[in-house]
Amino acid sequence: MALTHTDLMEIDLGRLDSAVSGWKKAVDDLNTLAEDARQGMRAKSDAARWAGVNATVTRGFVTKTTKEIADLHTEAGSIHQVLDDAHTELVSLQKQVRTAVQVDAVKLGIRVEDVGGGKVRCYFAHVRGDSDERTQEQLDAREELEGRINQLLAHASEIDASVARALRKSHGDDRHNAGHSSYASLDEAQSERAAELAKLGTELTDRQFMELNSIMRFNARDADFSTAFYKSLGGPMETLEFYGKMSLDGTAGDDKARLALTRQLQQNMGTALASATDPDNKPHLPAGWGDEFRRLGTQHIPVDPTFRSNPYGYQVLGGILRYGDYDARFINPIAGHIVQLHHEDPARFMYAKPATGGADLDWGFNPSGQTGAGYDPLTSVLQGLGHSPDAAKQFFSDETPVVYREDGTVDKTATLGYTYLEELTNADFEWPADSLVHPGSDEADHARDAGPDALGHALEAAVTGSAWDADPPTLHRDEQTHGIMQQVMDQYNVTKADGPPDPLKDSLARMGAAYIDDLNYSIMNYGDSGDQLDRDGLFAHSSDGSPREAFDGFLARNFMMLVAGEEDGYRTLTAAQQLYMASGLAAGETDRENAIPFVENAAKVHGILDESRSQGIREEFKSAEDAANLALSKDGEWRKTLMTVGVTAVATGGAAMVLGPAAGVVTATAVPLVMQSGGSAITTVYGNHTLQYMEDHAYNNDPEALMAVQTLEQAGERATAQPFLRYAQTVGMSLPEQRDIVNEIETNYRNGKAIISDNEKVAQ
Q1: 682-687 contacts: CB < 8 A, separation 24 or more?
Q2: 3-state secondary structure of 112
Q3: What is the pLDDT of residue 745?
Q4: H-type helices in 123-174, by residue range?
Q5: Comparing C-alpha atoms, which of 415, 440, 153, 409 is closest to residue 298?
Q6: pLDDT at 597
Q7: Cβ atoms 79, 23 nearer than 8 A
Q8: Per-residue pLDDT for 711 more than 90?
């Protein structure tokens, strides 16, 4: 029977603590007794000069008794360790559930009720006179709270089941025989059970599959568990065989329940492999596992006789690598080897795809269904780097990559001649079609989208220091991440004849948002005046603690022009700019001397972004027959969501910016903020400068309000001016001062637009 949240909140864990103490005393007492038995009666029995039947019987009895006492000591030790670990984990879970129910839920006005099956429902209680209308932020908070509590309950239930199973095995079925299973920790008991289930392979029932996933889900990051689990599979070959068979079995046909279980297994195995292969963890798998995976990468793995040729090791391994935060020492040699193999033969792995005639499109080694079917290991390993920011940073900043032979061994005599960043961002790079779609189908047009999409995710991780889909995302930038961002901007800007692949564009926008402070910093350098005007002081105190690094001013403009030229990119960058400007104004409430030039420069950046989008719209509608369509349909539609931005967190890394459906799979983007002098956190005054003020002053996104804002220019001007006007009210600025500064803001805004207009004229 599953635990309820009431069970977990109210259970007296003090009794379990007493039991742990009691078993600890039993262990100590039995240790003394066992030692006495060995050194006392057993030693005397062995030394006695007995003869005859009685001597034989007596010696046998003494030996058996000594062993039984030792077994009792072992059993007691096992029970103590399991109960001690369980108590520690349950105390933590109980504390978290109590906080969620008694503190967080109360603050939100939410009630929590059990709905059976170890789950709860969170809901807003009706209050008389209340309209019961909730904001999206409130609904999101309710959903997060419900998911968090259910996760904690599931973890507690898994511990409960694991402890019960371990105690049964430690005790055994024979009350007169103490020699049974023993465990040094709860992790050991859980890894043993996971190994037992894994040995069943595709014969696992759905119930057993759920149990395996439950154990792995809550223990995959624990090095003791993950290392023991992978060792129980055998080795790299056995790991590939197990996962390969499980993924093909789970993705075959239309069994949605089995597919869901297999998706969980994929994520759990990836997380566990990352933990088990991290050399800094104790314990961890031998380094030879990485070498063996590289050797097997180009070998066929026997997983399914229906394949015209069995898949390569890298195709199977790729499915696991997609999840988990991997150490660079493990994943980067694999990623480098895969890139080099692709460089030699881009279609190499595609020859090992099954021919399904366009049927059963998710059959393969990527049950998640995201970014490819799983036959292209390059896409898979890039997804892995997208979840491994430190490894991604090292991978893309490596100027002298190691050269690997086909079998994965290192060729110390060779040099590569290209960096991985150069290779993967080359306009002529040939991405494999990681799909089982029929070549002549409509879907075939997008068969090669998975690769550049995964590349974007890997680059996001490399330049932000956070997994591309982290929730919430944070920023961990340094000189190395900035250098990678510089190279990305060199490759992708309006001066390049070939634009970025479409699937990469959303990542470029999020990367630009993550460096919106450096983009502002770079723009404030007219005629190389930045140093003399102390822009370093003006842009100090970033929320992630990183120093400002300048991009070339022209490069910054050209990158923003490229990204903001399209609707989604514009929405991401302009929203980030608004948040960044608002934070700068909030931080400058006691420092007007710096706040004014800060907002004037921000206005210039706004102008750059707005004119970039204006140019993009003109380009999209250059052959439109009716110019009214531009103003009334296209322009109106994208402006409906121009300001739909929510700040979900203000943490050490900045703000999490939510852009909604247009942002794709990822709904949150990390944005750096300006902190108050000395690095202290921005207070609630931050809210005075956000979009709420604009909405309170007639800047609504409903159709009626939009009628008053018919052009992009008007929208941009309001987005630039309104936060400053609120700032002026807050600091008590006089009317003449406001007039002068608004004129300066307008001048800077129009200067930013003029820069892009000039670029457009040159391009024509």
Answers
A1: 682/583, 682/586, 682/587, 682/650, 683/586, 685/586, 685/589, 685/730, 686/582, 686/583, 686/586, 686/650
A2: strand
A3: 73
A4: 136-171
A5: 409
A6: 87
A7: yes
A8: no
